Amino acid sequence: MGLPTNMVRRLLRKVRRGRGVRVLVGTIFVMTITVVITPPSWQLLVLSNTLKTVNDIRDTILRTTPLPWQPEMSKLLHFYRYLNMSQSQQSMPLPVTLEGKFLLNNLDLCSSGEESMDSVDVLFMVHTALLNFRQREALRSTVANQSFFYPFKVRILFLLGLPANDTNGTVQSLIELEHKKYGDTLQGDFIDTYSNLTHKGVMGYRWITQYCPHVRLVAKIDDDVFVDTFKLLHRFWPVLFVAKSRAIFCNVWHNNTMPILREGKWKITENVMRNLKYFPWDYCSGMAVFITGDLIPFLYRAAFRTPFFWIDDAYLFGMLPGVVGNVTYYDIGFSKNLSLNHDVGFKCMKTQGITCPFVAVGSKLETFPEMWNVTYNIHRGLWKLETKTIS
Predict the structure, then answer these.
(1) Which of 200, 184, 194 is nearest to 110 (CA)?
(2) Are 162 and 103 in contact (CB under 8 A)?
(3) Are 61 and 16 in contact (CB under 8 A)?
């Protein structure tokens, strides 16, 4: 069974604009067609002898439609050399989550209810461990709870892989129950380990490109980080979005400052970055990284060209921006607006109140409720809902 060409063209136009998808999702078409798209920025799409849903078609378009950029070849060649790879290598390793299925997904997370896809102001993209149910509950009920920050639109997405050694399926069943209740988890088809965090991050970039393309700010955090969302929206919002694009705000490790570890948990083998003692490119500490939404599709597309590197911070917030090019880093780093040290950050919040400069600090489960109460009480009464400001 085939589809009329004019119907396919109309469908593809809608998918490209991000419209009409919710109505059509779940409808399966068997197509044996060749579609030629006339605008010059589109490529030939051949969809044959496979079951294609609307989301499959949109995914194909996202992968094959060129963005108005060319990768920074000099940076790309440097990365090949640093990782001891040849560009002509036929089996160049790439993140496994560039394509493939999502095991758990909520297509409407950014467009639930009456809101459109272009209405999300902040999306928290959280790297989380499978068994950290309490950490996820703490975050979703406080720093990413939409009801506290209206009329800003705030969403949260927890990134997960598959449990290892889950022979009786207990962990996976609990994850599925959590997803059924909250709908804010995204699970990919890979084992959830430290060495697979790069796969996890690229999965997040892909999901945002597909399902939340008009988000204004992506706040990537770990699940042991507390964010003062009030401060983020009040103090940092004008800075982040006054003529800012293709920008990353984080603690920046500048090139030739971060040591390359040759032993321990983050060990890099001797054949990678041979004879170097420090990372030869800029990248972010991954505890809290704020990325303007317009940059995300470029980062996702760059992952198709950039060889895989398992240290996620260096890859997601260093190598990919380097390949994209013309990305601006703003250092809001440690001792400025971020603190890895929970005790230092919490003390600052309690003693300095609204003047505390930290927007994100390391957190502990046992003190998380108190941290939230302190933050909430500081801002309660100052939050002017109708104007999105704090007096």
Answers:
(1) 184
(2) yes
(3) yes
Looking at residue 335, its pLDDT comes to 82
Q: Which residue has the higher pLDDT, 27 or 106?
A: 106
Q: What whole-number distance in Å separates Cα of residue 380 and Cα of residue 133?
A: 28
Unique residue bearing structure tokens 């982040």: 240
How much is the mean pLDDT over the chain? 82
Angle at Cα 10 formed by Cα 9 and Cα 12, nearest 5°?
Answer: 65
The secondary structure element, H or E, covering residue 75 is helix 73-82
Check: CB of residue 358 under 8 Å from CB of residue 225. no
Q: Extract the tokens encoding 256.
A: 């030739």
Residues 192 and 164 sit within 8 Å (Cβ to Cβ): yes
How far apart, in whole angstroms, are the C-alpha atoms of residue 157 and residue 123?
Answer: 7
Lowest mean pLDDT among 105-114, 191-200, 250-259, 361-370: 105-114
Pairing state between β 225-227 and 360-362: antiparallel
Spatial separation of the C-alpha atoms in residues 209 and 86, rounded to whole Å: 29
The encoded tokens of residue 61 equal 């378009």
Query: What does DSSP say about strands 288-292 and 217-222: parallel, antiparallel, or unpaired?
Result: antiparallel
Q: What is the pLDDT of residue 59?
A: 53
How big is the CA angle at 68 (ends 63 and 74), to the nearest 5 degrees? 90
Whole-number Å distance between alpha carbons of 121 and 151? 10
Do 143 and 124 meet the contact criterion of CB atoms below 8 Å apart? yes
pLDDT at 383: 65
The CA R_g of the chain, rounded to the nearest whole Å, is 22
**Which one-letter amino acid corresponds to residue 288?**
A
The strand order across the sheet containing 328-331 reads: 102-104, 185-191, 154-162, 122-127, 217-222, 288-292, 247-250, 328-331
Contact 179, 188 (CB under 8 A): no
Whose tokens are 């970039």? That residue is 205
Block residue for tokens 């929206």: 233
